[in-house]
Write a sequence for this structure.
């Protein structure tokens, strides 16, 4: 089955951090879509893609700025249903003869409520319990509608929150229906694709088949090595690639010395017991810890780690007889926070080790079959591929490991202390039956010593922070609401059992404004 046998939707990306969430919402309704950066889209490329509908994403630019991004003008004469979101709405209005103005007290960021003005097909299932909560994030706003458009919903600072030209099937909204904080947003997209005539024939099984076909087409008869990090992503990538190309694949598990207690053994056992995939266990802890020793800048740490991974992979590419391809379990959130996913203009938040942390000089080509997916989708794909549930349900563990949980200087003694505290925190979570309610939990060793008193002696040891969050896809997160009893018991255990820590704090920052990891 190829993607051409499915109805296709084109998302033109203007660089919003949440564009991929549009794709995700569509996949939830079994719609096949692709995201193309605005600067790679032409009238011809749209015609050859042959979409049944087009969505114009949000983005950080202002249409009022010279040379700001636009859609190809011919798009609006192709007779296709079009939905513009946030910047996409402003682009539509600007290109169709309406007017956009900047801020002046009408900027809106965060939660807002839209009131209905009139009914239309995309609002089916909306406003059943009164005004709808939506998520706004805009400085500019539409001040005059293009010809043919009418208002269907307003919010206090967005008189044109929901607009449409029903004759042409053009829809334009100021808010982001794709984010969780627009609770009825998925229904809005479903209404749009229903109206455009999509049948919803795209499933994870179809995704798997397509991914396998793409891997085969990309690598041909060449050898591939796949970096296993211990997390779900790289394991799913490895099993998928093995299904595609069999023995052309060798996995390389790099022990960076920055793994959690027992992590390396668990991953190796899972692979050796369940799969017949050649696996190299590369103990490179001296190399990684040596190069990181004394480093304190977060981006420098990430860049060093990215480069060392590649050095190790290149070494093993030679040892297996010349692998031309390096496979990684890179996910969409890794990509969007590191570089722009589709070449569009989004902003770098941090260099994930397998994306922005890669060195410019690299002899191998990348195979990244999960690059469009979110973590929960990867878990579904893992189940589809038959990975054991216990493995699929594991908390994420980042490639740079404990290095990004040791703000300030990295030293071996600090990493050892951190590892001991971390295992106690996880043990507590498991004992209290909370593991599956939590997206990810870990300890951060802080670059600060504090004074304490233990027995009758003064101590001067490190403070640490516990971090535990709930999340659906890692893009946004909330801190986990442990009871005081749990926190007290865990702090006592860490202080009693780990020499080197005498103070424990709990991080109650959500994402945004924080990120999940501290670096
Ligand atoms: P942040 O800190 O960006 O983390 O909110 C979101 C998710 O990504 C994981 N993470 C990484 N995973 N390489 C990885 O494989 C990285 O460089 C990296 N940085 C963050 C993080 O653990 C969380 O699950």
């Amino acid at each position: 089955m190829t993607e051409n046998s499915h109805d296709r939707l084109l998302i033109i990306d203007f660089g919003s951090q949440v564009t991929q969430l549009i794709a995700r919402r569509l996949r939830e309704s079994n719609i096949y879509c692709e995201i193309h950066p605005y600067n790679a889209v032409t009238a011809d490329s749209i015609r050859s893609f042959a979409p049944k509908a087009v969505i114009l994403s949000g983005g950080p630019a202002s249409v009022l700025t010279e040379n700001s991004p636009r859609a190809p003008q011919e798009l609006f004469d192709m007779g296709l249903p079009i939905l513009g979101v946030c910047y996409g709405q402003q682009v539509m209005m600007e290109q169709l003869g309406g007017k956009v103005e900047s801020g002046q007290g009408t900027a809106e960021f965060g939660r807002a409520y839209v009131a209905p003005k009139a009914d239309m097909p995309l609002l089916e299932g909306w406003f059943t319990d009164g005004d709808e909560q939506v998520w706004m994030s805009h400085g500019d706003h539409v001040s005059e509608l293009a010809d043919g458009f009418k208002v269907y919903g307003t919010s206090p600072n967005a008189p044109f929150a929901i607009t449409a030209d029903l004759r042409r099937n053009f829809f334009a909204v100021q808010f982001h229906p794709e984010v969780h904080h627009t609770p009825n947003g998925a229904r809005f997209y479903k209404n749009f694709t229903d109206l455009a005539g999509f049948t919803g024939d795209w499933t994870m099984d179809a995704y798997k088949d397509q991914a396998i076909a793409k891997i085969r087409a990309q690598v041909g008869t060449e050898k591939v090595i796949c970096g296993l990090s211990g997390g779900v992503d790289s394991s799913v990538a490895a099993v998928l690639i093995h299904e595609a190309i069999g023995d052309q694949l060798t996995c390389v598990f790099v022990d960076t010395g920055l793994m959690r207690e027992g992590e390396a053994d668990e991953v190796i056992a899972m692979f050796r017991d369940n799969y017949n995939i050649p696996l190299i266990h590369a103990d490179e802890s001296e190399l990684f810890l040596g190069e990181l020793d004394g480093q304190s800048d977060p981006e420098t740490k990430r860049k060093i780690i990215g480069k060392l991974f590649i050095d190790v992979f290149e070494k093993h590419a030679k040892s297996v007889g010349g692998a031309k391809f390096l496979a990684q379990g890179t996910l969409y959130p890794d990509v969007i926070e590191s570089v722009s996913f589709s070449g569009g203009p989004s902003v770098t938040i941090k260099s994930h080790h397998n994306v922005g942390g890669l060195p410019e000089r690299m002899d191998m080509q990348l195979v990244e079959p999960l690059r469009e997916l979110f973590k929960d989708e990867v878990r579904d794909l893992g189940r589809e591929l038959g990975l054991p549930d216990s493995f699929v349900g594991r908390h994420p563990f980042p490639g740079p490991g404990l290095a990004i949980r040791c703000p300030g200087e990295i030293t071996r003694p600090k990493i050892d202390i951190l590892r001991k505290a971390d295992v106690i925190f996880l043990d507590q979570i498991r004992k209290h039956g909370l593991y599956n309610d939590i997206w990810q939990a870990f300890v951060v060793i802080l670059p600060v010593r504090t004074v304490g008193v233990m027995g009758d002696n003064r101590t001067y040891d490190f403070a640490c922070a516990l971090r535990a969050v709930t999340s659906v896809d890692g893009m946004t997160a909330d801190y986990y609401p442990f009871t005081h009893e749990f926190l007290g018991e865990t702090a006592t255990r860490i202080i009693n059992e780990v020499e080197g820590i005498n103070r424990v704090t709990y991080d109650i920052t959500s994402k945004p404004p924080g990120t999940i990891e501290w670096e």
Residues 204-392 form a domain with the Rossmann fold fold (CATH 3.40.50.620). The chain has three domains: 7-195, 204-392, 411-506. The chain has 14 helices and 20 strands.
